[in-house]
Specification:
16% helix, 6 helices, 3-stranded mixed beta sheet
Length: 326
């Protein structure tokens, strides 16, 4: 199979113009608050390549001849022309963080749901909200957005509720992280990767934070004027978070989210596949075969996927963490 790609800039297919000029194409598919990134380096040896306009939309497909997979639309935010020999490098991201998402705002939210806040953020930036129903129904007693951008608030809410909070291809996604499911709650089919599929791998196991039996958060009880504590897990040897929350529900959500994160943080696995897999994306569950027993017996989920096309072919690098129980 011969690796192949398609690039569409502002609705125009430029693939025929750049065929034979591609030095490298790297697509980094992130799970969390980081935006996905597309890096393309082209040869401009004859000086005929045009520099795309700022904020151009770049649609990208990757895969093999006759079997390309759409990988989303990206906004151009950096161009570098260098020489000699002359090259043109384009860097684009999955979200335009220069628009309404970055505007600092003053707003207080009272007696709303998490879905109300997320839908408002999506609407202000003309994004399509794709929100997990259980998280969307979460009641929010009070939260302040004080000189804070919508992007920062989105990130903060994701951390507080242990959610994947990101923007991809014009959609605002908010769903439980590490469960191997879509934002709607549908389970993503697992893939099996054998030792023979990879060029290299790295397995890391650490006991850092594993002595903790739970997580504690403080919250301010306005009725009594006292500081109280809520614990996720066991209270015998908890990790205590520094931030104090305005009410019990927010503190409990933060403690539970951090406790789930600690439970997933003990092992990491990285794999580089000899043949690229355009169908793989973050949150996909993975079963490994042919490695050490400790690796194969672990339920993994993808947290980062890097696709690389160039003169040497097409490879995919996978970064995984332990799958969170659903």
């Amino acid at each position: 199979m011969k690796p192949d790609y398609r690039l569409v800039v502002n609705g125009q297919n430029i693939t025929p113009k750049v065929n034979g000029r591609l030095i490298s194409l790297t697509l980094t598919d992130e799970r969390g608050e980081k935006s996905d990134q597309l890096d393309i380096t082209l040869s401009d040896h004859d000086g005929t390549l045009a520099i795309p306009p700022r904020n151009a939309s770049i649609g990208v497909w990757i895969g093999y001849q006759g079997a390309l997979t759409y990988k989303g639309s990206y906004t151009l935010d950096e161009v570098v022309h260098a020489g000699t020999p002359d090259t043109l490098t384009l860097r684009a991201r999955s979200a335009d963080f220069k628009g309404p998402l970055k505007h600092k705002r003053q707003q207080s939210w009272h007696g709303v749901t998490l879905g109300d806040i997320l839908n408002t953020i999506a609407g202000r930036s003309e994004l399509t909200p794709v929100i997990n129903q259980a998280l969307a129904a979460t009641a929010i007693t009070h939260i302040d957005q004080t000189n804070e951008s919508d992007l920062n608030l989105l990130t903060r809410l994701g951390q507080q509720y242990g959610a994947l909070a990101t923007i991809k291809d014009g959609r605002l996604l908010f769903a439980p992280a590490g469960t191997g499911s879509t934002a709607s709650g549908t389970a993503i089919p697992a893939v099996t990767i054998t030792r023979q599929d990879g060029d290299s791998h790295s397995y890391q196991l650490t006991d850092r934070d594993h002595d903790y039996t739970g997580v504690q958060c403080h919250w301010h009880n306005t009725a009594t004027g006292t500081q109280e504590t809520v614990t996720a897990g066991d209270a015998s040897n908890p990790k205590v978070l520094r931030h104090s929350y305005p009410n019990h529900d927010d503190a409990a959500a933060a403690a539970s989210a951090h406790w789930r994160t600690l439970n997933r943080a003990g092992a990491k696995l990285s794999l580089t596949l000899a043949e690229g897999r355009p169908d793989l994306y973050p949150e996909t569950p993975v079963q490994t075969l042919g490695f050490k027993a400790e690796i194969d017996e672990t339920q993994w989920v993808l947290e980062r996927v890097v696709h690389e096309l160039g003169d040497s072919g097409y490879t995919t690098r996978l970064e995984m963490e332990v799958k969170r129980p659903t």
